[in-house]
Amino acid sequence: MPTPKKRGRPAINGRAMSAAERKRRSRALQVGRATRDHNQRLPKALSVEIDASLHQKLKRYCEAHGKTQIEALEQLIQTLPD
What distance in Å separates the CA atoms of residue 77 and residue 81, rounded to the nearest whole number? Predict the structure, then answer.
């Protein structure tokens, strides 16, 4: 009788990676891909705190224009002078 295939994510180096290790590996792979293809976006995490009323204003803008919050923020940042 054949042995059943193991379930779950395949192990690397003989043991499972933690969530932090998987994310670290994912970020490193993204940077590697982006440096090979300069047309691809290079993601960078950004964490900010804003006033609740500004957040509601951003959400309303995004809903009205069919954009995600990141798309709206990127559009705004693109308009800033260098």
Answer: 9
CB 16 within 8 A of CB 9: yes
Domain that holds residue 81: 46-82
If asked whether residues 52 and 40 sit together in one domain, one would say no
Distance CA 21, CA 11 (A): 12
What is the full per-residue pLDDT of the chain (82 aa) written as tens digits?
A: 788 887 877 777 888 888 999 999 988 888 787 777 666 666 777 889 999 999 999 999 999 999 999 899 999 999 999 8
Instruction: Report the SS3 class of residue 7.
Output: coil
pTM summary value:
0.51
